[in-house]
Amino acid sequence: MSFSLSDQNDTIIALATPQGVGAIAVIRLSGKDAIQLTNEVFFGKNLANQESHTIHFGTIRDGEKIIDEVLVSLFIAPKSFTKENVVEISTHGSSYIINQVLKLFIRKGARPAKPGEFTQRAFLNGQFDLAQAEAVADLIHADSETSHQAALSQMRGGFSSEIQELRSRLIHFASMIELELDFGEEDVEFASREELRTLVERLLRVVEELILSFDLGNVIKNGVPTVIAGKPNAGKSTLLNALLNEEKAIVSEIAGTTRDFIEDEINIGGVIFRFIDTAGLRETTDVIEAIGVSRTQEKMKTASLILYLFDLGDTDLFEINRDINKLENQGVPFLKVANKIDKANSLLINELKEQHPDTIFISAGQKDNLEELKARILVLVNLDKFRTGNTIVTNVRHYDSLVKTRESLLDILSGLDNQITNDFVAMDIRRSLHFLGEITGEITTDDLLENIFRNFCIGK
Ligand SMILES: Nc1nc2c(ncn2[C@@H]2O[C@H](COP(=O)(O)OP(=O)(O)OP(=O)(O)O)[C@@H](O)[C@H]2O)c(=O)[nH]1
Ligand SMILES: [Mg+2]
Hints:
Elements: E1 12-15, E2 22-30, H1 34-41, E3 42-43, E4 54-62, E5 65-75, E6 86-93, H2 95-108, E7 111-112, H3 117-124, H4 130-141, H5 145-155, H6 158-182, H7 193-222, E8 224-229, H8 236-244, E9 262-268, E10 271-277, H9 287-302, E11 305-311, H10 317-330, E12 334-339, H11 346-355, E13 360-361, H12 370-381, H13 384-387, H14 396-417, H15 422-440, H16 446-454
Parallel strand pairs: 1-7, 8-10, 8-11, 11-12, 12-13
Antiparallel strand pairs: 1-2, 2-6, 3-4, 4-5, 5-6, 9-10
Bound molecules: guanosine-5'-triphosphate and magnesium ion (MG).
Subunit structure: Homodimer. Heterotetramer of two MnmE and two MnmG subunits.
Binding site for Mg(2+): 237, 258
Function: Exhibits a very high intrinsic GTPase hydrolysis rate. Involved in the addition of a carboxymethylaminomethyl (cmnm) group at the wobble position (U34) of certain tRNAs, forming tRNA-cmnm(5)s(2)U34.
């Protein structure tokens, strides 16, 4: 797939709603001939005489044959998503009708849109910058409140505006320093080195914060990895099933039932958690179970959160303290979850309440107190910062450019410290400008564009 400039003159068409049967389907056209092409097959009124942002009832006909009764919405350039003429045709949602309409338009000269081509045109026509265009894709794929928030804030400008502002101030310094170079031997200084340092340090802080936010961004997109760990038979698989409300993992009274890990997503309070049920932790001579145990230990290291689950009827304070000690050394946040409260003796419960008052008592089998467990999980991961509209980088491409920007900014600073000559400072500044420009799309290459828009779905 490539985007040559001549493609840009085509009028493109695609189904904008999902494939399959629905009450209505929306077919979208964009391009300079969009209205004229529609006029050729639409009967009701002359679309060429209508105003932008109006809706018209009529029929779509292929020669004598009526295909469907439809509503046609008009968006006249530049007042549309792509800034081109856009027509949206709402038909009845049968795949037969959709296919007939698409075929008819293609016969008349429209071209099937490539994935993301509508958004690509919007970008090329200056509707928004590249980071915002990518956010459109994220927004469509967002399936939780937090990932939706992150995509929306990026699409509406997010960190682009801040980066653009700092970048334009850096451009100013670059030109000043290059002017100094023009004056050669004469000892003039147009650009204050102290002001340059202050600006670079500020940029560095912004860039570093964005780099840090990438880890959080990933969590939002892919779910918080949460491992349920504990001895065999503690009830880990039972807890996973109870949280999922389905019988996903096999539960049995045989210790060592789960050998490989099983995972699934659960939405708690608008945040996606990826729960991972693991093989119970114990010394074992069974080869396969031993592999499972070592995988559990691996999973625990990469988790954002561990639910340490124990059976109140099959442990004691000594064992619990030993496990907690190990967990504290691992450094991953964890919750102490005591299971099988329905058949527990009160001695251990009282000891726990005294020594570990933050223990959560549940019965996975009876689904008791799971709401409190969920509430405590939410508090522990503390995702509040996602809700306050802080900027979060969720895109690998942005992350790469940010890391390169950081390196080149550090080069500017060390250049200033070591009083290197102007031409080198100017080069480092140019390099920083380049990487910053890559994020917002002020600097693009064909490869880059192609890669980004390939990940969109057709019709967007
Ligand atoms: N009474 C009672 N029994 C429970 C509870 N939760 C789980 N069980 C029982 O405990 C046994 C073990 O449960 P599992 O969920 O398979 O335990 P596990 O931790 O996944 O065990 P492994 O996969 O072998 O490591 C099963 O017989 C469950 O029915 C509970 O809250 N109360
Ligand atoms: Mg299990």
